[in-house]
Amino acid sequence: MMHTANGTSRKRMRGDRILRLKTFCDPGHPVNFKGSSFRENVSSLLEFGCRAEGWNGPGTNCWTFQLEVHRNPPACISLFVVEELVEMSDSLRCHHCTSIGWGRHMVCNKRYHFVLPSKKTLGRSNGPNCEVRETSLLAAVGESRLMSVRGELMHGVVHSNGFGHLLAVNGFEAGSEVLSGHQILDLWDRMCTGLGIRKVSLTDTARKRGMELRLVHAVAYGEPWFARWGYRFGRESYGVTLQMYQRSIEALRCLPLCLLVPQYGTTSRELPAIIAKYQAIAGHSLVSLGQLFMFMMELKDRLPPDAFTTVDYHRITMEPACRWSTKRLEMAAQVIVDALKRANFKWVSRQDVRDAARAYVGDTGLLDFVLKSLGNHVVGNYVVRRMVNPVTKILEYCLEDVPGGNPSHCSHSSSGDTVNVRMRMQTTRVQVRKDLIYLYKCILLGQNLRPAAGIFTVVPTAVRYILDTKHLLKDYRKEITWENAVMANSTIKLLCTVCVRNRGEQEELSQPVTPYEVLTFPGHATLGDIKTTAERTFKEIYLGLKTFTSESIVDVACGDSELILGTIESGNRVVVSGLIVEGDGGQDMYEGGNGIDGLVNCACGVKEDDGERMLNCDFCNVWQHTRCVGIGDGKSVPPFFLCTHCENGISLLPSLLP
Predict the structure, then answer these.
(1) Cis? peptide before 30, omega within 30° of 0
(2) Does the reported pTM lie above 0.85?
(3) Total tally of structural domains belonging to the chain
(4) Helix or strand or coil: residue 514?
(5) Does one domain contain both 651 and 618?
(6) Other Cβ atoms within 10 Å of 280 Cβ, number
(7) Are 499 and 508 in contact (CB under 8 A)?
(8) Which of 144, 237, 275, 581 has a CA 20 to 30 Å removed from the CA of 58?
(9) How many whole angstroms separate alpha carbon 432 and alpha carbon 304?
(10) Residue 230 within a domain
(11) Rounded Cα gap, residues 152 and 175, in angstroms
């Protein structure tokens, strides 16, 4: 396989290149992103992609990138970038923008889809079957306009103004064969950073082993699973505000364990045993539900896999880093096992094992190499276990008997440590996962337990608030501030937007109609250049501004020939006003369209469309959540519906009823 070299030569950029997944979109891989906008950077990236030959999708263009997951064994995946011309699309508007609160953004000229298709999506075709790929990808593009998409490994869509949505992430849990959810999110995060994307929204519905990750991670870490990549509370759903969300998390995390047993111990025998077991394993006091969940999550991640194999010394000697013979490797491994046996089968830190073995093996490089190679491997009659202590964060080793071999030697440890050592040696990832699921169902979901009392009455409400908080947001462009928009290298950077009015109207719109864009000018540029550049830039971005003609700069009375220097400071915000042809600036040119803003009045307090399922009253046309009026998510909407207000009003007029 050929790997990419840094540089920007256009002679070396065609589709036979294979790029490394772990570095894709890092600086120089495959290009140094120097543009001040997403449009400039994505154009630079697509120059290194392979243009899909025979692509006939209407209003779309497609490029592919081959990404190497690992070399040995060789494995590659294809990243597809589909450019969609919105004017030729079946649907101009984006429902995801409405859900996250961007309904007042103008419709952009282009949308870019970044797709890692699954084998199922591509019809399990490994060859260059362009027809299969095209049909599948066009179907994915079409579904992205809806509120749900199919099972792609990753699907993100970015509007040409730099605002985007992560629509799908499907790792091993969802059937991926080569990429985990962490790897997919790492790739997406690098792409967003390199391409200069401004903001990205997502709807957090991630599940694992039947558990909602946004609830489990909120209890364990005080934040959603996506927070490790910078995604935070984005928008209210069902009237749940940021303050309500934070208080709900704190209420669950602070539940005292000492009160859980009296509350639920009489109806659940397992609950007291689980709490006692992990308090003993921790070796220190776990006092709250949040501490217990966090300890169990970290313990599960650091425990070795349940399966183990015999050490293959011949394979190890074939590794490039190995410079020792098989005989010396076997001797060093036996010395390490003997040192662990002398520790009475307790968990021993890596440094202590190394120091004990050095009395018999003077080659520290050999010891380090063997210690690195051992971990859940059989050496003689023992399994060498390796894990990171979840309390001290230190790498530790321990011996176990091979299943079916001699009885456990845990009884040889000192009386004070016997229970702790036995529990740690017998606890596996599977067992911790089962215990975690049991606590999740019993405490958080309240299954098979008696009704909550006292402080535990807050649990159902707090859980509902956390599960209702699904719209997350990450701002990638916080750095677009005065500090980095100052003049550098004889250039001037300004933050610019526009406000418009139709021809024949005298009154301008009071608010700008677009987000601010960074415009760069040479030191000798004039005010007229601001108007010209703004007109060209915003025509390029927005469909509704294709007839925009700039007139003046708001609050600047100087002529077009005046230099920017001395008139407007670099880093300032400027607003360019202008005209559009009547009709081009209508409601259809906004992502939310006419929407249902102003007609939403739900009992939960929501006053605008939040992307959740709604229905409207057939009498007053006011929209409400189906859940808030007693219609479950799995139930169909009735053919005729009256809200409570109209129903009560009509009941006061019996003469109007048949």
Answers:
(1) yes
(2) no
(3) 5
(4) coil
(5) yes
(6) 14
(7) yes
(8) 581
(9) 12
(10) no
(11) 10
Tell me the pLDDT tens digit for each residue of 530-582.
Answer: 999 999 999 999 998 988 899 899 888 888 899 988 888 888 899 999 888 76
* Whole-angstrom distance, CA of residue 95 vs CA of residue 101: 10
Cα radius of gyration rounded to whole Å, the chain: 31
Residues 6+ apart with CB under 8 A from 652: none
Residue owning tokens 């501490």: 291
Q: Which two tokens stand for residue 332?
A: 């060093």
Are 19 and 29 spatial neighbours (Cβ–Cβ below 8 Å)?
yes
Same domain for 193 and 97?
A: yes
Q: Which residue has the tokens 């996506």?
A: 226
Cα dihedral 629→631→632→636 (10° resolution): -150
Question: Residue 505 sits in a domain of what CATH number?
Answer: 3.10.20.90
Residue showing tokens 């392979």: 50
- Asked whether residue 299 falls in the same domain as residue 328, the answer is no
Q: Which two tokens stand for residue 440?
A: 């999740």
Note down the domain range covering 561: 491-580
The C-alpha atoms of residue 232 and residue 521 are separated, in whole angstroms, by 35
Closest CA relative to residue 97, chosen from 107, 109, 85: 107
- Count of alpha carbons within 13 angstroms of residue 121, beta-carbon side: 25
Structure tokens at 34: 């120097």
Coil, strand or helix at 178: coil
Residues whose CB is less than 8 angstroms from the CB of residue 460 and which lie 6 or more positions away in sequence, other chains included: 446, 452
Query: Is residue 237 in a domain?
Result: no
Residue in the block written with tokens 């650091």 = 302
- Contact call for residues 380 and 402 (beta carbons, < 8 A): no
Give the span between the Cα atoms of 345 and 325, in whole angstroms: 29
CA distance 617 to 436: 43
Of residues 403 and 632, which shows the higher confidence score? 632
Q: How far is CA 210 from CA 205, 206, 207, in A?
A: 11, 10, 6
